[in-house]
Fold these 4 entries.
Entry 1:
Amino acid sequence: MTITGSERTFKERLTHRPMEQGVKVLWFLCAISSIIAIFCILGFLLYDAIPAFMEIGLIPFLTGDRWDPTSVIPKFGTVPLIVGTLLVTFGAMVFAVPLGLASAIFISELASPRLRQTLKPAIELLAGIPSVLYGFFGLVILVRLIQDWAHVSSGESVLAGSILLGIMALPTIISVSEDALSSIPRFLKEGSLALGATHWQTIARVLLPAALPGITAAIILGIGRAVGETMAVIMVTGNAGIIPDPIWNIFSPVRTLTGTLGIEMGEVAVGSLHYHALFGVAVLLLIISLIVNLLSLEVMKWLHRTQTGGKNGHKSLLQSIPVDLTFITPYLSWIVIIGCLLLLTLVGLWEGAVAVLVILAINALVCRFCKKQQIQQIWFSGIALVMVLVVAILIFILYDIFSHGLPYVSLEFITQPPTNLGRGGGIFPAIVGTFYLILGSIALAFPLGIGAAIYLVEYTKENTLTKIIRTATDLLNGTPSIVFGLFGFTFLVIFLGFGISLIAGIVTLALMVLPTVIRTTEEALRSVPDSLREGSYALGATKWQTVRRVVLPPAMPGIITGAILAIGRAAGETAPIMFTAVVFMQKRLPESLLDPVMALPYHLFVLATTVPGARNNQYATAVVLLVLVIAIYGVAIVIRNHFDRKVRW
């Protein structure tokens, strides 16, 4: 008896049914990993923080104006830490938002295609520089410049932290804002130009309002980067737990929430009141980060509804307002410039007020007496100068590191262990330890992230569970890196008994980079046309066969992009591993997963902050770390381009 093709397909589906169900369950378990991780982090932090809340009192802990755990009567008031965090974050946004938005406008609207192809990788390179390198640059260059310029006793201050965090937030704000501007339909711009508007009027009154959701997202992401940064602020803010007097004294040293955790956790006695109070600070930091992320999600949804008109055909909020509010947009940059002037004011508020009045007067005169083309030329010149400034910052950082560090990078430096507290010898164990941490974390996060994305895109429809999973992923992505380090310390190092070990660092880094892999893989899978899936099903393929043979190959470039971002972040992070995996000096390589390791970011941090007379090896270590990160990005980009060409052919 012969078997027809339809009967064979039916029997094959019956045969594959158990495997299909097993694969679906496996991907579901990967998908809920984000939910499990965020609840585990919050739960373990609360478990260690509750004793402090009970003994100190929640209200005194949140409202106390002094943080001094080492005094005769310990003080655990977090107001100075909260104020320091807010001041540095606000200053960073005042610096980064106007520069980032102007740079995004230049790349999207003014740069030629060839220049755009050059600038975008440069911005990506700025994003790939590890935070400890920014901190090292700020400590040896920026702090000294502020000290000489302002004639103050120390340049470690609110201003130094604000400028440095602003530089670190620039790539995020530029990239996301540029994507938002580039995604606006072309007919809006052409319609505005056809009605007689100049290019600048089109940008200010049409493109910027249309790109407002993306620009808002860029600013919120920049705020998240500034709030959660640890190593850079430790190195440049002075770490004094005081409230500046007056509050606008930008040359006052401050201490942030993340800086407090990074400085004190390594020296505190486990189980002491000070120990539990630090976990209380971590809970406070995590709650602030969760609130910022939840608010950003709600703001994005609201902005999307207002611009699309909402559901059921109702008018959007902007459409329902009879007054044209777009006149505000051209003056938005002036508002930010005023903020910059206030931040850079050397003495009090009077000079700032005078500067504001002068700027407003100049703006009024220009608008009153200059022609549209002249106004456009003024704005475009300013935007171009800002772009030059951003590129100059990148070039200056790279030049300073390479010019001072390259002469001391040798074969012996790369292949020998350190001696004399890092002043001599080399960094070979740190290089190997960094590779171990990167490979281990990616080996753990990559399959989990891809599996979660496959389940969300291919195996389920949009429902309450998927919304919870995506929200958990977003919250995990916005969790400060130091919080991951504390979770790894309390859960992996102490609770599970791993100790300071390679495996503890690997798991901690994997949890940190997991959201990046999930979201980028999701976008890559969604970019595959549904017609390919439908054609595969029509030929009798099962769900898993379709995913494996039809969907994954064309999505591979996007998946590789996720790996690029994850690898770059894992290579340059210090805070998640400083309490879980690394030691400063170790001449031998780890022999098992339970051994501690050296790592380049932590080695550079200790050399720069606690070892005097090690300037040559500081710069040489910075060069090696920077070259490593650039090489990782370069190899990954080559692989991604290979897949792009393969898919096109």
Entry 2:
Amino acid sequence: MKRNRKILPTILISLTSAVFADDVASQNNNLELDDIQVVATRKLSTSDTELNNAIESGEVIPAISKSKPIDTVHGTTYELNDMAGISIVGGGQTVSQSISIGGLDRDNVIVGIDGVNNYFSNFGGNNTRLLPSPYLFKSVTASQSGNDITYGSGYIGGAVDFTTIDPEDILHGDKLSTFATVGGNSATTGANLNTGIAAKTGQVSYLLDIVGSNDNDMTTANGSTLPYSANQNFQGLAKIAIDISKSQSLKLSFLNMQNVGQYPMAIVNNAGATNPPANFNYNQTQTTLDYRYNPDNPYFDVAVKASYQTSNYAVNPIDTPDSWQTPQNIQYNTGSIKAQNTTKVAWQKLLYGIEATNITASDAYNGTTVLNFPNSNQQLYGAFLQDSWDITKQINITAGTRYNAYTSTNGTLNNSGSLFTNQIGINYHFLPDWLAYAAYSEGFQAPTLSNLYLDGYHQYSNGNGYIYQPNPNLQPEVAHNKSIGIKYDSWFTPEQHMTIDVNGFLNDVSNYVLWTYAGQSGSTSVTQMSNIGSAQLYGYSVALQYTSPWVLLNTNFTSTYGATQDAYITGSNYIVPAGAPLPIPQAKGYLGLGFPIEPVDSTIKTYLNYALTQTRTPVSVYGNLPEAQGYAILGLAYDWKPKGKLKGMSALIGVDNLLDSYYQNYNGYNMYPAMGRNIYAQIGYKY
């Protein structure tokens, strides 16, 4: 059975993303090889660029990783999976994948777009998440648990935040720019199209960007075609940016994402579990208003962000002998506002602010034979204060505290609470190119509406099912994350750059929430979300990136472990003893090489994604799962970006899984067949 489980695979911790030459310097997302010398002459030290950015964003130590899309022919989940600190689990299909950081997933990892938390959570085991297309975001940042004081509920596993493109990222000159890109791939006979326009008149700039893609049933390396793994994805981004004055700016943004198709793909599991096929239609909108006031004095740098999100997820079973997928039609509306200010006095940088969020949710399907998610509501409130002190030019200490409060209602059922979360970190720039850091930070997760109030009957195979029972007495989960790391960042010459990152973490989670056994109703087991005492996750990562005019190297390796600290009984009435290992992939890595060919404005790229044999859940707990074998997947690509008269053109052709190796993605409970050899191509023009 596919269950709503909270601990899933991870690839942890590094500050270097899986990128090539155009990602050498984080201060210039559009860097080309011939720009390296210019960047080198103006570059700031590691402490200037990273510590100050961390201070302004509310982080006590640098983020795990930050990247821009390597190419836009691949989907966002593909790009994320190559980033340090992030793992994508749940198979190769867009709608059924989740983001994991540090072994924690789903509700425990914030997924933000332009700093706005996407609060849409999973319901009844549906593992869904809409992510912006690589065409629509210019960077994505991954942070460790509790590392940023401005984040509220959901931050016990970390945060992934997408920064969408602005008009100035597209404009050529000051007036007008148009662009179009088309691509496709063979393994899903898929196609994607992007077109848009950016313009500026006076102090106002505009952007409209539209993306469409289609993927059909996926082909695996053993020659089979997986049914119910097709989808059509449409996204659109519109922005208006206004420079009100030298000290004031206003930005209005509207993002729409819709994914329609069939899911889930088949799973391979000796325990006999299968996934019932269903049609889905998932639509999400986000409207954001950003106001900035910076009068160029040390006392005021005010930022106000207001947003409104709508999420609608509808799923209907496909008529097959195994038609026991839960029908749902969930509407999720979220409104939020956040205001913060930065004050710099006497070597202190004070960041402080308040925020409030209101969430309403409902499910149009209700009855005795389906899972019910009745009308419910949640309010979240927060206030935060952070002090960052530059003790010397080399040493910075940052400490912060956040007050969190929440209240949830569903008819006569109520749940509320409040708590403080704290953080402290030290950053030591002990040599010109070396940065060491250590931090203790806390994150919390208010009980989600689905965890509190989901009830009803879920049939997971013919004649077999569970009764889900609400639990309005859930306590918030709290993460206590300890992390330590070191980073080397140096320019040997104006054209040679190297970074080395080593990072380790230990995360203890209190009041951990998962499905547990709640009794029997006749022959049917009753299950509900409950708090267990604690769980512990820990791991390390090593990463290296080297860039030069003749070779580009990027590699990272991570290991993650986990264990429950308290015994508990699963919803299937299996006893899990204290100290039992958590089902987390033990090790995963990436190796990328690029070879620039400057005379023809091209780069040849090759990469290797690999995983070692995975840690398995004990057979006595979740059934006889097959061996989760490791794998190594090779890819090759040719990238052409001409200069001179053809500047603005771009072309990319490549192949994933070059050797057509058959392998399976493992999420700790199930195994999903992965995509076989996939040939892809893309061509674009920007004017």
Entry 3:
Amino acid sequence: MSFPHLLEPLDLGFTQLKNRVLMGSMHTGLEEEKGGFEKLAVFYQERARGGVGLIVTGGISPNLRGRLAPNGCQLSFPWQVSKHKKITQAVHEADGKICIQLLHAGRYGYHPFSVAPSKIKSPITPFTPTAMSARQIRGTIKDYATSSALAKKAGYDGVEVMGSEGYLINEFISASTNVRNDEWGGSFENRIKLPLEIVRSIREKVGKDFIIIFRLSMLDLVDNGSSWEEVVDLAKRLEKEGVSIINTGIGWHEARIPTIATSVPRGAFAWVTEKLKSEVSVPLIATNRINTPEIAEQIISSGQADMVSMARPFLADPDFVNKAAANTPELINTCIGCNQACLDHVFARKRSTCLVNPRACYETELNFMPAENKKRIAVMGAGPAGMAFSIYAATRGHDVVLFEAKPEVGGQFNLARKIPGKEEFDETIRYFKAQMKLNKVELRLNTRLDASVVRDEKFDEIVMSSGVVPRELNLDGFDDPRVVDYQQVLKGEVSLGKRVALIGAGGIGFDLAHFICEEKSSTLQPDKWLKQWGIDKEYKHRGGLRHIGDANAVEVEPEAHEIYLLQRKTSKMGKDLGKTTGWIHRSVLKQHKVKMKTGVSYRKFDNQGLHISIDDKDEILAVDNVVLCAGQVSNRTLLEEMKATGLPVHLIGGVDVAAELDAKRAIRQGAELAIAL
């Protein structure tokens, strides 16, 4: 299909955007690295060349106290302009436009100097903020204007004022975080003075020919958040103050509702942007879990929004827009919303990158130049590591033959995509298949690689990416056919009874519990998903939440299974899950009434059930089945045979390290090996 609405220019009067795609703001970690702005310039330039209509940088503070972290980036002084010029010049050379996002962290600041409208600690940071004085508030308004003027001097085409997600401006707007009794608190009129005066002061400072985007929290998803009437009122006033575009903000960071994770349905929040569309005439941007040109086109063509914002999809593929324009969406490396290499990295103070695109934020370091010595390479196993290596090696000019014993490619991704909320793994398999065809990787399905083939076909190197096999537990009764492993369940090779015990509470255990609980994924049923998480599309209550006192505020279907999730460790269940997604997995299992037990010792399985002990107290779980989710081991059955050929043998992915299934490491290993050979 073509994407005429997505690719249509947007006229802002004083300037024109070449299409309706905004690369949304995201922090990369390069902002604070030594030499990071040079790398950021290349990063943003690639996205500008990729055709995006407008780029917004990661959040930059207008002053010291507004920094996200002690070493966070700010734009407050003339001497800081020069490094920003490196970015704007690079983007403009590529015929792109770019805005700087001005973000004051407020009580989300991860340092002891944080300030907020009131002295109320955030539940997600360890520091209690200082309540701002009236003088500090006036100073902050001036700082926003100063930063905007400096941004214009640095060559930015505009600014985005971050007024959502629970940061400072949002904290002033909400009565739950603003309990002041002066002119900046109390009534709604007083609470919205800060955003209005910030926009007014910026417009006065930069003039009319400068883009001002305001990121408006349209759906707070927290108790006592803004009402819909207040959202509309503020939007209309912002329009009068001269904003060029209003961007949609969804959920505070402390909200206990997922907003961008892979389990969130595509375009799940476009309805709230559409709800505001008839209230204002300024262009509106829809956001969150928009990751394909098809869903973006649908949102714009149906009139839900004037533009779409995509952030992580431009980590996954800098050429997203160009590929859509060329009508080759099958070549787009789709963001799967996993957060593992982007947000999880940022929260760990590491450089952001992308699970499906390890080059993201490493554009100056990870490049696939033509090989000086072209080789014939045999690759064993078409899982994520094997497919990634094959594609990257082929782009360098190597002759690559990929052997897969099964009738399909994908490896562990074929299991992962069966988990409710992880359907996006389909897209990665589709992308890899398209790239293998494009780069002429010879794929041999239903074919095992053995030493005779290696010798007969005169290969130069062998890459083993043969993956993992489930770890077995040799306990009394575990040879019973009612004791199965997670792969058998996901492949549909066994039927489970009503009562099931899962041994192992890592990522596999959590995923399998979710798989058993949901016969049909709620991610594929947006309205059901909204109800499951207590989100009110009718917006009758503050924050867009269904009424807290309503017994049906959260709707989950009756359970078909009684599930026990067990782990040997005494630590918190799911402790090693992703920082930004682990709480979601725990919440889902809680919704489905999964019983979790830690500190478990396993004794045996018999007709009575699974015999365990906790704190030296014996217990029998009367279960019909036991499913082993206790990890996996590397599949190295052919390693010695490959070594005997005398050729160099390289191990990547699970066959190298069989820790928790780690596609991020596997794909990056494939890329790095492709560069090394």
Entry 4:
Amino acid sequence: MHLVLVDGSGFIFRAFHALPPMNRSDGTPVNAVYGFTNMVARFLRDHVGTHLAVIFDAGRLTFRNEMYDQYKAQRPDPPPELIPQFALVREATAAFGIPSIELAGWEADDLIAAYACKVAAGGGRCTIVSSDKDLMQLIRPGIDMLDPIKQKPIGEDEVRERFGVGPDKVIEVQALMGDSVDNVPGVPGIGPKIASTLVLEYGDLDGIYRAIPTMKPSKRRDALVAHEAAARLSRELVILRHDAPLPLPIEQLAFTAPDSIRLGTWLGEMGFKSIAQRLSIEALSPAPRPRPAPVAPAGAEPTADELIPRHDAPFSDYDTVTDLTVLAGWVAEARAAGLCAVDTETNGLDPLRADMVGFSLATKPGRACYVPLLHEGDLEHPVGQQLDTAAAMAVMAPLLTDPGVLKIFQNAKFDILVLERAARGIITGPITPIDDTMLISYAQAAGAHGHGMDELASRFLGHTPITYDQATGTGRNRIPFARVNLKSATDYAAEDADVTLRLWHILHPQLRTNQSLSLYEQMERPLIRVLATMEAAGIKVDEVELRRMSADFAARMAVMETDIHAMAGRSFNLGSPKQLGEILFDEMKLPGGKRMKTGAWGTDSAALQALAEQGSDLPARILEWRQLAKLKSTYADALVTQINPETKRVHTSFQMAITSTGRLSSNEPNLQNIPIRTEEGGRIRRAFVAAPGHVLVSADYSQIELRLLAHVANIPALREAFAEGQDIHARTASEVFNVPMEGMDPLTRRRAKAINFGIIYGISAFGLARQLAISPGEARTYIDAYFARYPGIRDYMESTRDEARANGYVLTPFGRRCWVQGIADKNPARRGYAERQASNAPLQGGAADIIKRAMVRLPAIMNRDGIQARMLLQVHDELLFEAPEAEADALAAMVRTVMEGAATLSVPLVVETGIGRSWAEAH
């Protein structure tokens, strides 16, 4: 007997990374399926044994996770292009007539070990088709391995070359060195060379620990002693279980030639004509239209018969699903496809309060359905049958949590919060894996255009979807979505899912082309779950303090209004732009006024700021009044109404795809606009408080954009100052104004500080003059002196502007494309604004990238360390946590370490932490 066992799960990943991207006719990625199918075809020709099977992993969780809950815990989700291919590889195995074997709770490697050892013990031979290092412990007389990509045998010599020991000692070496890929701990500081030396000297792990008393004192000996339990656990984790149950008897694995009709039909459906020709069988399905083949690496199989996705199916004929059996059929269809688009319809915009009125699914372009749950009818338009939410979620649960099916959303964070709230108690795990077409677009085109579904559909599909207004009406005639008739609701909602799926097929391949794939997969997509968790957590506010603050702001505004009326010479409505324009430009005759299309004078913030910078007091006072009025309405008044009645906390919503630089924004409430250095801003922060028994912990990057400027512009003096921990503003003042740092007067330092931060944002001489209460001429002298001392900064700004003019975008230090609108505008004012944006975007965007990297890393580390704290808010360069009082200090230290290590620059990153009962106290 010669049993051939193909490590199906291992080969999928190798084939995926070895071959270029390619798609089936419906847009489904198939490069791994093509590689697998081609390998099987070649293998049947060259290496067939008497018995054959393909072994797969049934899921991530196995008995090893019960032994060690962190086993493989850090492994990322498979790439989204790979997820739908898992099911197709199983289809390929069935088409060839080869038994496929998997067993819940066991890894494929254990099943391979059990089959291989049983065959060898009976005097037969087993060939394992895999290059997985973990399987090398099985090599012995009667068991060999074959690398499926290189088509080279792996024997004892190859094992010794890799591990320094024979196959019988591999588990001892792995126990000592651990495995970062599988999160096997091992002994810190012991790598493969030291591990193999110890095993060769002492025989095995037990021999090593028996010899500990005779070893000379050393760091290695101390590590072995301190981590003995981890080493012994690691050995148990890496040992493959020869006693695993055999799902199919070996006799049922006897090889039979494939059924040519069945295999030919499947190859034709997939478009794998070259493989069919190689096997001398006919690809029986109609040949779809071809596309030019992707460029393949040398030696790879030709891919000219791969196909472009079809997106010309009509946006119509969608199904309304009102029967659980029918819904189960859709779920089965989605699981077989390996991917689907999901969209929810709600009766509100707050995902933590809104009810799900229905949801839609799409399994391929043009194939979508809508599932109504809470629609309301009337006598003229009765709803008829619809599904109970809990029952529908019970049917959907296996799909939503299936790791082998990619769930595609447009604005995934919203839909996930809605679905998980609707399915509370029904699904226990997270909805995973996911993709988000909004973020896929944003990761490669921030600032180039909007990333809403309607705009993306128009831009990339040439299609205008049904609008919400068309479905629900407008103005007085608008009705809640729950009262939209089911035909119209289906047309609208199912189309959303259909459009989302089609967008994914087009936009996702562009991530690799635009060099944005790692940015999306390692930063933007993982952040969805982080932010959803933060939004669900919310933050407590002091309602009494807010009401007190509102009354105080109102009193101060009344005093300011009296002063403004006196300055204007008469009373007028401060909230009326028309009346204000008449005061400023008709009566006071201030220069620079511009009329709008309506004929009224423009009095927006930019117009008032320009007047204030020219020395006019009234516009400056109006700006102060407006700021206080905005703080009152946005925070002091609104926060009280935004308290969730269920949680008694305020839940902001983080917007992930709004800014051109990658920064997050937030609304309801907008936390980004709370003033940082004013008394009012501090008072608002005092209203954000910790729950009883807890404190708030703030962690804030110190001068991160200045540090990035020193890094990207390569300014030696600034880099030296940051490296030595000097006062950067005093150092700048010393360099620019030629004064000693010791004994420097506060005014000189303040001027340098204003220049340092102003330069980042392209401040004008008028703007700096306004800040420092000096003349524009003196301010220009300061700016010129700054650039004369740091010419590298001017060079950097010019180079980024040139980059924006040439490409339309600039890059952050981490590869994010920040598109700059108006960089070639003929209007000097708009062009100048765009140039300032271009200079600042790599700094502001780089800071956004760094804090996002930290946010993605923190939850896993907090979970690993058993920290009970919750991350609540992200505002500019600051993260805010709520922690039990007893763990606040430990949390602050850990967060500081993670944030400071989120990126490696030529200057150190510094994080300042604070702890307090309120945000103001911690900030």
